[in-house]
Amino acid sequence: MSAATVTPPAPAPTAVKARDGEGRIGLRANLRHIGALARRNTLQIKQDPQSMFDVLLMPIVFTLLFVFVFGGAVAGNGNQDEYVSYLVPGLMAMMGLNVSMAVGTGINEDFQKGVMDRFRTMPIARSSVLIAKIVVEVGRMMVAFAILLAVGFMLGMSVETSPLHVLGAVGLSLLFGASLMWIFILIGLSVKTAQAVQGMAMLVLMPLQFGSSIFTPPSTMPGWLRTFTDYNPLSSLADAARGLFIGGPVARDVWMVVAWAVAITVVTAPLAISKFRKKT
Questions:
Q1: What is the pLDDT of residues 88-117, one digit of tens each?
Q2: How confident is the model at residue 12 (pLDDT cuts 50, 70, 90)?
Q3: DSSP letters along 12-64, please?
Q4: Cβ atoms of residues 191 and 119 within 8 Å
Q5: pTM of the predicted model, to two decimals?
Q6: Cβ-proximal residues to 92 (8 Å cutoff; 6+ apart), any chain
Q7: For 21-47, b where at least 16 C-beta lie within 10 A, e where not — what string?
Q8: Torsion of CA 29, 34, 36, 40, to 10 degrees
Q9: Which of 206, 208, 242, 269 is most buried, by CB atoms within 10 Å?
Q10: What is the gyration radius of the CA atoms in the chain, in angstroms?
Q11: In terms of Cα–Cα distance, which of 159, 103, 128, 115 is closest to 34?
């Protein structure tokens, strides 16, 4: 009599760890992912040095343009040194805004090139991809600020406070610039092409830049524009940086910039991360 064949029970299915659940990824692992992705983005810059042309040339071009072309009209002939001290701290706000736009273009191009398809297969926190881009762009922003200050000092800019105050102005500009990156990331995730990102960004950049105290005192503007300028966060940042460079009351403007930066981040960062999860 043959023995009955016994079929062994099928093994219980093993639980598959979710790859997109950031709550299941520890802080150390998250930081490791951010570091690895930041290194990858930095190597991309090394392979394509032309991607640094904006932060290398933009501070030089804008400073020379406004000082020598518009400086005489704004500050009067013979007062260009005084205008440099007024302009350069304000240009820090403008540099931060322009450099921030690049992160939205970059994230859009990564989707077009299929880079995000590879990230989709990796057990990494989705936010680490976005934060790594912000880290690298903050580094690029620091390079732009260093060149801007060097050009300013060469043109006769004076600092009447201390190096710590100058570092405070740089840190405040970096904080606000980093918060703006979440807006451009959200735009980059919402439109189809990098050209569309740039087009939408310009609609934001132009009114904020020229409707502010970056280039000229608001007292020279008509009343309706002066009202817009008073509530423009770039005006608060320019005035705060200017006060930290040449002295004067800065507490109100500093707190306004910090409040704007926190509010922008709190509102747009969750939206950008949620949009990124849906696309990946």
A1: 999 998 888 888 888 888 888 878 877 776
A2: very low
A3: PPPPPPPSS-GGGS-HHHHHHHHHHHHHHHHHHHHH-GGGGHHHHHHHHHHHH
A4: no
A5: 0.83
A6: 145, 148, 169, 170, 173, 237, 238, 241
A7: eeeebeeeebeebbeebbeebeeeeee
A8: 160
A9: 242
A10: 24
A11: 128
Measured distance CA(71)–CA(87) in Å, rounded: 9
Question: Is residue 123 within 8 Å of 19, Cβ to Cβ?
Answer: yes
pLDDT score for 100: 87
Place of tokens 């692992």: 29
Query: Cα–Cα distance between 75 and 38 in angstroms, integer?
Result: 43
Residue 38 is encoded by which pair of tokens?
């930041």
* Predicted local distance difference test score (pLDDT) of residue 20: 43
Return contacts of 227-235, CB within 8 angstroms, 24+ apart: 232/208, 233/176, 233/208, 233/257, 233/260, 234/93, 234/94, 234/97, 234/208, 234/209
Read off the tokens for 256.
């306004």
Q: Residue for token digits 């005084």?
A: 82
**Cβ(174)–Cβ(261) under 8 Å?**
no
One-letter amino acid for residue 275 of the chain: K
Q: Position of tokens 């503007």? A: 221
- The token pair that represents 34 in the structure block: 């951010």
Tokens of 185: 């990331």
What angle separates helix 53-65 from helix 80-113, to the nearest 10 degrees? 150
C-alpha to C-alpha distance for 50 and 109, rounded to whole angstroms: 16
Please, which pLDDT band fits residue 262 given cuts at 50, 70 and 90?
very high
